[in-house]
Design brief:
- With 657 residues, the chain is α/β, with parallel strands linked by helices.
- The protein is built from 23 helices and 22 strands.
- The strands form 4 sheets. The protein has an 8-stranded mixed β-barrel.
């Protein structure tokens, strides 16, 4: 009887323990799955798009690979809001299994309908690639707004938990006197231990989902959540806060040159520098890539400046990766304005504008937002859009300004000048759009197009007329300029001696090594070379003979000072003209706009005149009647001659010529 009683007690105890174990496992699994689903929703970028498409990006795949290593999860299935499987974690690179488009057991649909999770304990001993005991937990996925967007079926390995209880049951068999104690005590202790483990796992999941794993700063979602909480609690006043945008200069170069390991290490370096600079009143986060943000709640502007300088100094310290010392710098934009009515989004936009200006200024600096800066950047962005639309919408034009022979007042050639329309019939000044096109990397293509248009037009003119084209430094950088010029001459049929190419002396100073061989090759082609804007740079006389220039174009600044009372500018100009002639160079005076300037220049032995006094730049279709009908020579007082071709234009679209 005793043995029968003991046997019955053991059986009943075993059943009670088994049921208790199942309850504990299911309860733990439900909590784990819920926490893990929340972690997935926060960690996977653009999760809702993934649920719709079922095709993860490389970034999403990387996050998923990490996700299946958290909280005993070894597999999961993702269902859309219609309870259809769209993704299986261990089959990311394979098509979905047959029939997977339908929820085969209805559990996902139940979760979507009721909002409650479904927990299914499974025996995996007879299944391939499954632990002995596991749980399939169906839990909802909700958006940041609290709306269900899908269901995730989480597979949780519970074999260690079950094994723990089974070992405890064997101890019961060996000590009948401890049956009752063991039946209730051991599961309770195990439960407490597992609950502690669950708490630690939950904390780990929450930490992973709220922090940028590389830098330790808040990730994008958590940063904005923290800001919202601080605003609602009254701990943050945007009117007294500085919004600081930070961008790591040329981070792509570090990645491409030294590898992603070096790039990651440098991002950690920046994150550490930011973390060390924060006070309890600051919030910082990594927005993504090499972009960071700080909202400093209670610093005045001098303190903000000290913060920025400390950050720049800390980041500029070298970082060693595999024996290589890496250095980098920051571009920073700041918005600090007590103006009421500006929300966080507007203040961030203005800080971003300031950051954009810092990059335009050459990077490795910081800029504070001002109202005029917004208009300036908006204008620049408009010009950039016009440049991008230049070829597709035929906004680029080439106009031609005549060059006049001083002694005969005959037209000897035309300078090709680029024009860009803003789409409303107005022209953007070349001094404004050309530097922007150079920074955007578009000027080489534009310059090649101007060469093509100029040579095609010039071949239709009388044979004694030449065309002059300005070259950009970027055209020399690519090393294809000589081939481009040669191809344009061959396609158009223009004689090389009828093409003149203008180079500024500043360009020679900055890129002499890149330019010298190409200028010699152009000279060999037979084209004429002109030094443009002479007198505005260092005016190194060595360039005049070293590169075998054929023409010297004197900057307009000399002409504008000719009619003053000081005769020194006349003597300097006379010296330049004499020097050019001694070096067998033709000398052109640019920027002639008044009859008084013409009278002053007639006492000097110049070769060619150019300026609005003699003609404004005109479209190619107007050149034929101009060449045929508009040359008019007349004697003026004091021996001055005037060739009146058109009225002096109004507005900003003027060239130096």
């Amino acid at each position: 009887m005793l043995f029968a009683f003991i046997a019955v007690m053991l059986i009943v105890g075993k059943l009670v323990i088994a049921r208790a174990v199942d309850d504990v496992i299911e309860a733990n699994a439900e909590r784990k799955a819920g926490a893990w689903a929340s972690y997935l929703a926060k960690s996977v970028p653009e999760l809702q798009d993934l649920i719709r498409s079922g095709v993860p990006s490389a970034e999403q795949t990387a996050v998923i690979d990490k996700a299946v290593q958290v909280a005993d999860v070894f597999r999961f299935k993702l269902f859309d809001e219609e309870a259809r499987v769209v993704l299986i974690s261990d089959e990311l690179d394979r098509p979905l299994e047959a029939g997977a488009k339908t929820d085969h057991n209805g559990n996902a649909l139940t979760v979507l309908t009721t909002g409650n999770p479904v927990i299914d304990l499974q025996d995996g001993r007879q299944k391939d690639n499954r632990p002995d005991l596991y749980v399939e937990a169906y839990v909802p996925i909700v958006s940041a707004a609290g709306q269900p967007i899908g269901v995730v079926e989480v597979y949780l390995d519970q074999t260690p938990v079950a094994a723990l209880f089974e070992r405890n049951y064997l101890y019961l068999v060996g000590a009948l006197g401890l049956v009752v104690l063991a039946s209730f005590g051991v599961p309770f202790v195990a439960y407490v231990l597992k609950m502690r483990q669950q708490v630690r796992t939950g904390e780990k999941v929450r930490l992973l989902s709220s922090r940028d794993q590389l830098t330790g700063l808040h990730n994008r979602a958590t940063f904005f959540h923290k800001v919202k909480d601080a605003l609602e609690a009254g701990d943050l006043d945007l009117g007294k806060a500085a919004v600081i945008f930070i961008d790591l200069d040329k981070f792509k170069t570090i990645n491409d040159t030294f590898g992603h390991k070096a790039g990651d290490e440098f991002l950690r370096h920046v994150g550490n520098a930011i973390s060390r600079s924060l006070t309890p009143d600051d919030l910082a986060g990594r927005l993504g890539g090499d972009e960071f943000i700080i909202i400093s709640g209670k610093r005045d502007m001098p303190a903000v400046e000290r913060l920025i300088e400390d950050l720049r100094e800390a980041v500029s310290e070298p970082v060693r990766v595999d024996g290589i010392a890496l250095t980098g710098h920051l571009s920073i934009g700041v918005h600090f304005d007590p103006a009421p009515g500006l929300d966080l989004k507007e203040r961030m936009h203005k800080a971003d504008i300031a950051l954009y200006q810092a990059k335009l200024m050459g990077r490795n600096t910081w800029v504070r937002f001002t109202p005029d800066l917004e208009a300036k950047i908006a204008r620049r962005q408009f010009v950039e859009e016009c440049i991008v639309a230049g070829f597709p919408q035929n906004r680029f034009e080439v106009h031609y300004q005549p060059l006049i022979e001083q002694t005969t007042l005959k037209v000897v050639g035309f300078e090709a000048l680029l024009r860009l329309s803003d789409g409303d019939g107005n022209y953007i000044p070349p001094a404004e759009f050309v530097p922007i096109a150079e920074e955007a990397g578009e000027i080489a293509a534009i310059g090649a197009w101007v060469l093509e248009q100029a040579t095609r037009s010039a071949v239709t003119w009388p044979d004694h007329l030449f065309v002059s084209v300005n070259l950009s430094a970027r055209q020399f950088e690519e090393g294809t300029l000589v081939a481009c010029v040669k191809a344009c001459l061959e396609r158009s049929g223009l004689a090389p001696e009828r093409l003149e190419l203008e180079v500024t002396e500043n360009m020679l100073i900055e890129q002499e090594d890149k330019i010298i061989h190409q200028l010699n090759a152009l000279n060999t082609l037979g084209v004429s070379l002109a030094m443009d804007d002479f007198g505005t740079g260092y005016s190194s006389l060595g360039y005049l003979w070293k590169y075998k220039f054929n023409k010297l174009k004197v900057d307009r600044s000399f002409v504008s000072s000719l009619t003053g009372t000081d005769s020194k500018s006349r003597h300097v100009l006379d010296t330049i003209i004499s020097l050019g002639h001694r070096l067998d160079m033709t000398v052109t005076i640019e920027g002639i706009e008044t009859e008084a300037q013409v009278e002053a220049l007639n006492s000097l032995s110049c070769d060619h005149f150019q300026g609005f006094y003699y003609g404004v730049p005109m479209p190619a279709q107007e050149l034929a009647p101009f060449i045929s009908n508009t040359i008019e020579t007349a004697s003026r007082k004091g021996g001055a001659h005037k060739l009146r071709l058109a009225e002096k234009p109004e507005g900003p679209a003027r060239d130096a010529g």
